[in-house]
Amino acid sequence: MQFTLSVFVISALALETLGGTWTIGDTYVGQDFLNSWSFEAEADPTGGRVTYVDQTTALNDNLTYVSSDTLIMRVDDTTVLSSSDGGRNSVRIKSNTAYDYHVVVIDVRHMPEGCATWPAFWETNDGNWPAGGEVDIVSVTPSMIEGVNSVSPNLVSLHVGSTCSMPSSRDESGTPQSNDCDVNTDGNSGCGVQNPTTNSFGPDFNSAGGGWYTMERTSSEVKVWFWSRTDGSVPSDVSSGASTVNTDNWGTPAAYFPNTSCDLSSVFSSNNIIFDITLCGDWAGQSSVYSSAGCSGTCVDYVNANPGGFSNAYWDVASVHVYTTETSSS
Ligand SMILES: *[C@@H]1O[C@H](CO)[C@@H](O)[C@H](O)[C@H]1NC(C)=O
Ligand SMILES: *[C@@H]1O[C@H](CO)[C@@H](O)[C@H](O)[C@H]1NC(C)=O
Predict the structure, then answer these.
(1) Residue nearest atom 14 in ligand 2 by C-alpha distance
(2) Could you tell me the sign of the dihedral formed by the alpha carbons of 145, 151, 156, 159, in that order?
(3) pLDDT tens track for 223-240
(4) How much is the pLDDT for 159?
(5) Atom of ligand 1 nearest to the CA of 72
(6) Distance 183 CA to ligand 2 centre (A)
(7) Mean pLDDT across 16-40
């Protein structure tokens, strides 16, 4: 009995190590985000000039709105703040379910843009950071000015609470910015990979009608892919929200994090999925980062005085699909 059990466990683990075919676990559309995700009305851990509101406030103030096929989450774009006020009202939501090995597919029509904005779609184990690790799938620089082309591509990164590095040469279309994922040794900048195309975020992403981000996490690798809405090469299982997906057909990922010199199976916990919109904070608010984007004054003063600057600081999410069962591997 014991022997049989061990054989079963070993073959199950072997299946988990490779990409392949995955079956749907959870689908989130519209109202599902109100029922199955939590509004995190907490202080922003990145020190942003925001006040994250609870679900009741978000719905009352229309900072969150759902329909049968849409989730909108936005920043307050009407209130002028004084320096003694709290931050600008914003939204941060987290899936109630935490996921271990899985594939996530998000269909996004619009992401927040504008000076001071720092939107993110990412996964972490909140209660266990950094020990549980962090994967930033969409993490956008503040360098977005409507109508001006001074934008940088999306950055995908891992943040790990222990020794973890990536090989300098690997099979990905993006450009590595750092190969050291350990939050303790690199000022927590993580091992980031820049997407190859500017339509991966901000105004260019939005003007194309958004697109799809996908991530596959197994015991031996993390891969992230992106297709713009207008990219005819998007796999049909991604664009249709199919009940099974085959990551072997998705081509070279934008970012590839293998376990060559990082034990991915131990550095990541089960992670919750998070959408947020912060303003300024540790990254977007750095004066050199903020001003090099062509944004005026200081980040906090801009946020306080310019509610109209946030009219495009919203997420429009069509769906999130999470595939949790690997049914066959390559
Ligand atoms: C709330 O936001 C949605 C989405 O932007 C919009 O369609 C709707 O008209 C807004 N409702 C109100 C009462 O402003
Ligand atoms: C990478 O993952 C595979 C599959 O789980 C495992 O056999 C291998 O030991 C791992 N390599 C490292 C360096 O952790």
Answers:
(1) 263
(2) negative
(3) 999 999 999 999 999 999
(4) 86
(5) 4
(6) 22
(7) 90
Q: Grade residue 137 by pLDDT with cuts at 50, 70 and 90.
A: low
Residue 161, H or E segment = none
Query: So where are the chain's domains?
Result: 4-329
DSSP states along 290-321: HHHTT--S-HHHHHHH-GGGGTT-EEEEEEEE
263 touches ligand 2 (CB under 6 Å): yes
Which residue, among 310, 316, 74, 65, has the nearest Cα to 209 in the 3D structure? Answer: 316
Dump pLDDT digits (tens) for 261-302: 999 988 888 889 999 999 998 777 888 888 888 898 999 999
CB 75 within 8 A of CB 310: yes
Catalytic residue among 40, 123, 134, 221: 134
The CA-based diameter of the chain, rounded to the nearest angstrom, is 70
Q: Is 40 a catalytic residue?
A: no
What percent of the chain has pLDDT above 70?
85
CATH class of the domain comprising 4-329: mainly beta
